[in-house]
Each structure stands twice: as C-alpha cells, then as structure tokens.
UniProtKB/TrEMBL annotation:
Short name of one Pfam family: MBD
Record PROSITE patterns: MBD, ZF_CXXC
Biased composition (Low complexity): 31-43
Native organism taxonomy: Eukaryota, Metazoa, Chordata, Craniata, Vertebrata
InterPro entries in the record: DNA-bd_dom_sf, Methyl_CpG_DNA-bd, Znf_CXXC
Keyword list, A-Z: DNA-binding, Metal-binding, Nucleus, Transcription, Transcription regulation, Zinc, Zinc-finger
Protein name stated in the entry: Methyl-CpG binding domain protein 1b
Composition bias type Basic residues, residue spans: 228-237
Gene: mbd1b
Comp. bias (Basic and acidic residues): 14-30, 101-111, 238-260, 649-668
Domain CXXC-type per the UniProt entry, residue ranges: 363-409, 482-529
Gene3D superfamilies linked: Methyl-cpg-binding Protein 2, Chain A
Organism per entry: Myripristis murdjan (pinecone soldierfish)
Chain ranges of the MBD domain: 149-217
Keyword DNA-binding: yes
Length: 833
DNA sequence: GCCAACGTTGGC
DNA sequence: GCCAACGTTGGC
C-alpha cells in the first residue's frame, strides 16, 4: 500500500479511449448515485475516499477482483474486468489495490451495478459499505471463496429468452487470467463449452455464427483472424476493455490488464525508450488501434526500475533482448526483456515473476543454478531410472527434465527477483520453485512410489522435517504439476486404464454417459489403487473407511480435513500446528505402505494381484495378434467393460492352461486397455479338488472378490450353505433387490426380491454357467447394472386402495428388464399394453 | 477450445 | 463428519 491511492475518478486511467462515452455515462450514474440513499453513498465511498478505505481494499482486493464486478460490468454492457486476475497472496494486494481503485474509477459505483455485483460470482459486492467491507475482509481470510451457483449470471437474450451467461476469470494456475464463459439455459442446463451449447440448442438455434466467448453472433461474417479486428468490432472491444479477451487471443503483450494496474498518481510518462510494443498513436488519430489503449495507459505508467539490466532469460531459456519493451501483465510496469508467464501469453516482469514464484506454483522461476562442481553436475549420463528420466521416456514431447542423478545437489541460489544473495543449497534442499505445501505433500506421496525410492538419489530428502519449508521438494521445477497428480500413481492398473466402466455413479454422472456432470469424478474403477481418495474408490476398496469385516487395511487416502477457516496461516500450513490439518497426507505414507507392501491378511490376493499385475503389463505390451492366440474361456460380451474383463479372463485362462469351459470361447478381439481388477481369483489358479477344497475355493473367491474392485457398492458375503452372496448395497441402485448366489460348485443363481430369476432370462445367455473367477463375477455384476427391476403394474383401482400400492406382475414377469424398458413384455401383456 | 477430473467447500 | 456440488485447472 505504498502506492498513493487514486484521488479521483478522473485522475485514474480515465483517458482510456473509446471508453470516454462510457466513462461519461458512468460518471453520470455515479453522480446520480451520490444523490441516492446514504448506504449507496457509503458504498461509493471507497472510490471517492480511497484513503479511508485503503485497508479494506487491500483486504478485499481478492474478492473485489472477482467475477462480482465482472458480472456487474457485463450486465452493464461493459466488458469483463480483466484486471480481476487471481490474487492468492497478500503480496499482490498492492497491485490489486490499484486494480480495485481503477475498478472504482471506471464508474462501478452505479448502485444498480453494485447491487448486481453483489449477486455475482464472488459475492464480492462492495455495495453495502463498511458492513460489506467487513464481510469481504472476513471472506478474504479464506483462500478461496465458494461462489454461489446463482451468482454472476446475467441475462443473455442473444440465445433466447431465459438464457443467462456468466464469465469466470481463473484466479490461479498456469492459465491465470483466462476467462471461462458459462451459459445457463432456461431449463437450468449449465453449459461450459460451445459443444455443450450446440447440444442444448440443437434444432433451436444455429450457432454457426455464434462466438461462444463473447456470446454474440457475428452476422455471418467469417470470424476475423486473431489480432485482426474490424473497426466495428474493435469498437465493441474497446468499450469492453476486456483484457482477458485479449489474453485469450494471445495478445497479452499489450493486455489492458496493465492499464488497470497503473498507479494514478504516478503519471510520469513511460520512457520514450519503449519500443515495439508500446504504441505511440492516440485516440482520434487515424491509426488509432488496439494499441492505443496502451498508449493512453502508458501515459500514466511510471517507468519502473528495471529489475535487471542483464539480458533476461525467457522461460524458454532464450536471452531476452534489451530493446524489447513489454508491459507486465501483472503490475503494469514496462520492462525490457522477453519474460512471459508460463502460458507465454502475458508479459511478466522479472519482479512479478519472482514474486509469483513464491506465491504461485504455476509460475516458475529458477532461483537455483547448478554449482557446476558437485558430483551430480559432473555426471553426464542419465540414469534412465529416475522419475525424471522416465518422464522423458513417457512424454518425450514434454519439456526435458534433468535426470535426478544429474541434478545439482548443492545449487547456488541466485537469480533476478530472488533474495539478493547467493547461498549454498543444503544437500537435501531443492529448488524452491514450488514452495507451496502441496509440493511437500506431493513429495511425500511420490516418495511412496517404489520407483522413486529406488531410483532417486536425492531421496534422502523424503524424510526431511516437515517444517523445513525450503527443503521439502526434491523434484525440479516441474513439480507443481504434481499437485493435480496426487491422486494418481500412474502405475497401477487403475491409473493405466483409460476406459470408463460406464456404470459406476461417477461414470453415470459424466455427460458422455448422459449424466449431469455434477460429480465430475473419475470412474471409480479407474481411481488409483494407491493414492485415490478413499471415498472415491469402489466400495470394496474403500470400505475400510467404514470398517473392513476381514480386517484388511484400508485402501486409498482418507478424506482431507479442510480447515482453512480455522487456520492462522495464510496458506496451507507447512507444519500443521495441531497435527490435524493435512495429517491425512502423513497418514497416507504409512497407509499406503501398509496397504501395498504388507497386507498380512491378504497375502494370497496380494500375490495374485502382483502376479497378475506383472502379467498384465507384459500382456499389455504384447501385440494384439499374439494375444489373439490365447485361449479364451470367457463368454460373449457386448461392452467395453466386459471386454476389459474378458482380457483378464483370457489371462486367467492362459495361466491355467486348463482351458476349462471351452464353451465360453468367443474369439472376441481382445482390447488393449487393461482392466482394473486389482486381484484375481480363478479356479485356474486353484484347481478344484475335494468338497472341502471346493469350499475353500469358494472362500478364496470371496477373498478375491473382497479385495477386487467390484462394481460400485456390490459386496460379497458368505451365507449359510455355504453360499457366496453378492448384494448391491446401494439403496438407490436398480439392483438393490438383486442378489447373486454362488454355490460351492460355482453355479450361480440371480434372485430379484428373493425370487429366482428364471434361467430363461437373457441375462444368463451372456455368462457362463459357473462363476469361477473374479472376472466372471464382475462381468455379471456389470451386466446386471444395466438392468432394473420390472416396475410391474399398479392396481387397476387406485382410488379404492388407500394402503400401500402393491404393484402387480405377470406370473411370467422377467423381473429384470433393461433400464430403458422399465416394464417387461409379460407385464405389459398383462394389462393389454 | 474442450474436457476430464482434482480440490475445495457449503450444506446437511 | 460426510458428501454433493462445482469452481478450477492441466492436458490434449
């Protein structure tokens, strides 16, 4: 807050071209608003008396910068407020303060606008004066404010009556500043992309000339190429002054964002040394173009101190040219060099870059340089085994990562924007390019991966003190990627599987399966077996959260305990003060270790699993033609899931070499995708012998089923008989009344509401007569999930029956019908339908 | 640009 | 404490 607050609306960045008219309007409305009620005046106070509101602004900058104002602007016909860039840390408060001030200077005090802003995304309304500021302050304590789903929407008649639109600016991450546009149909369909929009409006509205981002039709004219706009359109743009729209077009170099970062009081003109990207034309001149805004803005830009006079490296490692002058999209200062943000869209001055390096993991900035003297630096051979080497092998197109065995173990801390000293990095230190706690969390998890432990020469850092904030990461500056990789080890079958089961609740939720996209979670059967959140795993794997009957250790990570609101730390604690926050991460370490290295109670299954896993990997590498030669013993299937399972079955069959049940041979082409069955039981591995053995085999099948990723909420128990009983535990499932009973001979029977499913039911046609392996069981369960219980028929005279309605069924009711049928043909016939 | 899905949080 | 919901973001 060293910057002098804006003095008046007119002293800000008013000169913005094209906005003159708008500004006038704004001022008018502002003037009108001043005659409004006191509360409104108070609401306007921030802009009029910035000094008094300075602190509040600082604290509220994040919220005030949210979509709230954006929504208000949009509603007011103004373009999005692109200076609403993500603000995650206090260090940015200053610039945000400026942005905020600018925001107010731009006439956002219209009461109507403000009231609307109050409805917008971030609830960052400044419409209620001090109370609002207090609220904002309180809200700002949180790292992220959850927006109300109904906020920020503006009517969008262009798509028809009832349509609404919302713009959301990304506040963090590598795509920070990017703007996402959402539409809401009159029916409540939330549209997130053009594709979805086209889907919703199919047959209703032709979107051929519709520009999704702007939400406008362009009258049949071909969209102009990037960066080229006709005057008319540009006029609109100018009015909008949307920097994000420019950023989206890769025009960040002259993003208006910088304009909004100006310090009004600092009116010293930008250096005349500005070159290519600093336009010299002004409004009113014939050549007045997009850069005009920059020119105007530059008039207000204080020429900053260039952080470094040395050639500045770009993120590409290229040497920046001194004669390239850019405007930092973050703070608005001009600078020389070729520094851009990670997305290479927006210029970013060295100072901001360095700051963001500390503040945000998505912006990378090298602070550590190799010492050039240590053993690692002298090593010229990649180990080929470490995570970085493997990354290179797996993703050769991605940026090269230094082999861990070649990465300097004692780099020197140095670089523009960093602390002005050189220090020797501790042996177990690492480039603190990702100082977020996440980094440590990732490391902890990653360290659990055997490959890491076995290959990373720097793994001694794995056990470093959690409190040591700079010494947590052993990875290079790509590690921030891992934040979103925490749930995936990338090695287990579930991670390797690419196909959704299509039947679990998460799959059903997916738009591609006709879902509403509310859960937005990965298929349960594809949840990582090591690192997935426990509650996301298939019930069998995650059941330990509720207590495993067989005492097996729980699988998966427990739910995190988000307690930001109670924390005094501005960011996620590096050292959980009470050992509560994020303790799950630590728990995970031991948890995973227990789950995947010991499992004393399931040694058999573990071994089976391990063996199968190895085999599967080998198999996955086989040519399909080779696999086609493998014996089959799995029945015909008609879906991906079955096919995937089929693959397991084939493998089981191959291992067994018994070729049992040749009746199941299908010759169906094996899919390349790996199934995600974690543990395999098959009679092939355990040949049936005596009756006692058979019973044991049934128990082993039970054990294998319990340790496998069964379809969601199917559970295996043993009942009197003994019989192995598979039940659907989900009350919401259409199979909640359905059971599969497997007798010691592995013959099975499906029952629906305790009534046996007739053997003539087509369900049986697709499955073997004996369920001898996990594969076959899962296959059947998956198939069952495609059915529902026949709804039967309501009684003829409902009025006379005041008791529970008892549905009637035909005596030949099929019980199970395809979900799109609901009533079987026999019941339909009963009522003459 | 689109989409999958991760991480977070408000509501219960 | 759980979980549905969804903002967000990395990958393609």
């Amino acid at each position: 807050m060293n910057e002098e607050p804006p003095k008046s609306p007119s002293s800000g960045v008013e000169p913005k071209e094209g906005d003159a008219e708008q500004s006038t309007e704004k001022r008018n409305s502002e003037a009108e608003s001043t005659s409004e009620v006191a509360s409104t005046q108070e609401a306007m106070a921030p802009s009029l008396e910035p000094d008094k509101k300075e602190d509040a602004f600082t604290d509220s900058v994040e919220l005030a910068s949210g979509e709230a104002s954006e929504g208000a602007k949009a509603l007011a016909g103004e373009p999005p407020m692109d200076w609403f860039e993500p603000l995650e840390d206090d260090d940015e408060a200053e610039s945000w303060d400026l942005a905020d001030a600018d925001q107010h200077f731009n006439g956002k005090k219209d009461p109507e606008e403000e009231s609307l802003a109050g409805e917008s995304e971030k609830s960052g309304s400044v419409a209620s004066g001090e109370r609002t500021f207090k609220k904002i302050y309180q809200l700002n304590v949180h790292r992220r404010k959850r927006s109300h789903p109904d906020e920020g929407w503006v009517d969008w008649p262009a798509l028809g009556e009832g349509w609404r639109r919302k713009e959301v600016v990304r506040r963090s991450g590598s795509s920070v500043g990017q703007k996402d546009v959402y539409y809401l149909s009159p029916q409540g369909d939330r549209v997130r992309s053009r594709v979805e929009l086209a889907s919703v409006l199919e047959g209703i509205l032709d979107l051929s000339f519709f520009e999704y981002k702007t939400g406008k039709f362009y009258n049949g004219d071909a969209p102009l190429p990037r960066g080229v706009r006709n005057r008319g359109k540009r006029k609109m743009r100018e009015r909008s002054s949307s920097e994000s729209s420019m950023m989206e077009r890769g025009e960040g170099a002259d993003t208006p964002d910088s304009h909004h970062r100006l310090t009004p009081s600092l009116s010293s003109k930008v250096s005349n040394t500005n070159q290519t990207l600093i336009p010299q034309n002004f409004p009113g001149t014939p050549n007045y173009g997009p850069q005009d805004e920059d020119a105007i803005k530059e008039d207000k830009i204080k020429l900053p101190h260039i952080a470094s006079s040395r050639p500045l490296p770009s993120i590409n490692g290229e040497i920046g040219s001194e004669d390239t002058c850019l405007i930092c999209a973050k703070c608005g200062i001009s600078f020389t060099g070729t520094w851009y943000d990670k997305q290479r869209k927006k210029p970013c001055c060295p100072s901001c870059w360095a700051t963001k390096t500390k503040e945000h993991p998505m912006v990378r900035f090298r602070k550590w340089i190799p010492c050039g003297q240590c053993v690692a630096c002298h090593n010229t051979v990649n180990c080929g085994q470490c995570a970085n080497c493997k990354h290179g092998l797996q993703s050769p197109e991605s940026r090269k990562r230094i082999c861990r065995k070649r990465k300097c173990i004692c780099p020197i801390r140095k670089g523009p924007g960093t602390r002005n000293f050189i220090q020797q990095r501790p042996l177990n230190d690492a480039p603190d390019l990702f100082e977020d706690t996440m980094s440590f969390q990732n490391e902890v998890i990653d360290s659990e991966a055997p490959s890491y432990k076995n290959s990373d020469t720097e793994d001694f850092s794995v056990n470093v003190d959690v409190d040591d904030e700079d010494d947590l990461s052993t990875d290079d500056d790509d590690d921030w990627h891992k934040k979103r990789k925490r749930r995936s080890c990338g090695k287990c079958k579930a991670c390797l599987c690419r196909k959704d089961c299509g039947t679990c609740d998460f799959c059903i939720d997916k738009p591609k399966f006709g879902g509403s996209n509310k859960k937005r979670q990965k298929c349960r059967l594809r949840q990582c077996q090591r690192q997935a959140m426990r509650h996301l795993l298939p019930f069998q794997l995650g059941q330990a959260e509720y207590g495993t009957p067989d005492g097996m250790m729980p699988v998966g990570r427990p739910r995190p305990h988000y307690t930001y609101s109670r924390k005094t730390f501005s960011k996620k604690s590096r050292a959980p003060p009470l050992g509560l926050e994020f303790s799950d991460e630590e728990d995970d370490s031991s948890l995973n270790a227990m789950n995947w290295t010991s499992e004393p109670t399931s040694k058999l299954t573990y071994e089976l699993n391990y063996r199968h896993q190895q085999s599967s990997i080998q198999m996955n590498n086989l040519d399909v033609g080779l696999r086609n030669g493998l014996p089959d013993r799995i029945p015909n299937t008609s879906n991906h899931n079955s096919s995937q399972l089929d693959q397991i079955g084939r493998w089981d069959g191959e291992k067994s070499s018994t070729g049992k049940d040749g009746e199941n041979h299908t010759g169906e082409e094996v899919e390349e995708e790996l199934p995600m069955i974690t543990r395999i039981f098959s009679l092939a591995d355990n040949p049936v012998g005596t009756g006692v053995d058979t019973e044991n085999q049934l128990l082993k099948l039970l054990e294998a089923l319990r340790s496998s990723a069964l379809p969601i909420l199917w559970y295996a128990i043993v009942v009197e008989g003994p019989q192995l009983q598979l039940i659907q535990c989900a009350k919401q499932s259409s199979m909640t009344d359905t059971m599969v009973l497997i007798d010691p001979g592995f013959c099975y029977q499906v029952t629906v509401q305790k009534q046996p499913l007739l053997l003539t039911h087509p369900l049986y046609d697709d499955h073997p007569t004996h369920l001898t392996s996990v594969t076959e069981v899962v296959n059947l369960l998956l198939d069952l999930e495609r059915y529902m219980v026949c709804q039967g028929l309501p009684p003829q005279d409902l009025s006379a029956n005041k008791g529970p309605i008892i549905l009637e069924r035909a005596s030949t009711c099929d019980f199970l019908v395809k979900k799109n049928v609901s009533i079987c043909i026999n019941c339909r016939a009963l009522c003459g339908q």
